[in-house]
Design goal:
Helices cover 43% and strands 14% of the residues. It is α/β, with parallel strands linked by helices. It has a domain of 205 residues: Alpha-Beta Barrel (TIM Barrel). The protein is globular, with a radius of gyration of 19 Å. The chain binds flavin mononucleotide (FMN).
Amino acid sequence: MKTRITELFKIDYPIIQGGMHFVGFAELAAAVSNAGGLGILTALTQKSPEDLSNEISRCKDLTDKPIGVNLTFLPAVFSPDYPSYIKAIIDGGVQIVETAGRNPQEHLPALKDAGIKVIHKCTSVRHALKAEAIGCDAVSVDGFECAGHPGEDDIPNFILLPLAAEKLSIPFVASGGMADGRSLVSALSLGADGINMGTRFMVTKEAPIHENVKKAIIDATELDTRLVMRPLRNTERVLINPSVQKVLELENELGSDLKFEDIAEEVVGVYPKVMLDGEVDAGAWSCGMVAGLINDTPSCDELIKSIISDANEIISGRLARMVN
Ligand SMILES: Cc1cc2nc3c(=O)[nH]c(=O)nc-3n(C[C@H](O)[C@H](O)[C@H](O)COP(=O)(O)O)c2cc1C
């Protein structure tokens, strides 16, 4: 399949695995890239730029296909040493960076001078246009359905994607709620050049996370996610569990007096406990509504092949029959 995204990133299929904290390790990124998609390591999961260098080397030992690194720009109170992480990316020979969170403008020159293609993840058309204006090569448009941070506008992909298609000139992928061949065809028909998936890739054979997490996603329905941290304007879509219920009660109780410290126990340092130790109730962790569509644990190769063959069948079978 050929789109502007496959051309830009030199990949076989327009399917990207978005950066995921404590999920986007070398095993998953390499498996996605080996299957013809674009696998992405998550920089900040690595404690230091040196650790990121080692993870990039580990990933490059597992695949010779293009890989990417996610660089999430956190709210200003947390300040990792971004220039050193960027140096590790450049020195590691990575050609693609997925930026997310705050505006990446101050870091773009370093990335662009090294010939790196940048895809910025945004949750609104105005942010996507800003990313285009500052020189990003592509954007990932994350609808309200998505796992993680959907922003504060609450616009689902059926509205967001056609609006993005009308306004943007650079290529973009649809992110949030994508799971299968049907998602890919819908995204392409709404004007996107491919899809980005998070939650779906967590439930694959190669995702190096605890089986309890994969089971929790398979058991979940589309009704089982909640939005936390809205009063802090740092909204995150997470899977419901007792810790999340506690956060929601505190948010309800404290209203506009809520401070980050009030919920820190439920949201800070949670990912290693959940993803590595399988303590799925240890705190709040990102999960998309798409959990309702996930019922199996394929390999990344099986998943990507089935998405492409189902998409081909929908386009040249079911849809073609409708218009002929
Ligand atoms: C467990 C988990 C952790 C995530 N961590 C990050 C992250 O650190 N940085 C980031 O930009 N996006 C992160 N995301 C968001 C994904 O990259 C992707 O945008 C999102 O999952 C798309 O929605 P979907 O899950 O419906 O496919 C995370 C998602 C999940 C499920």
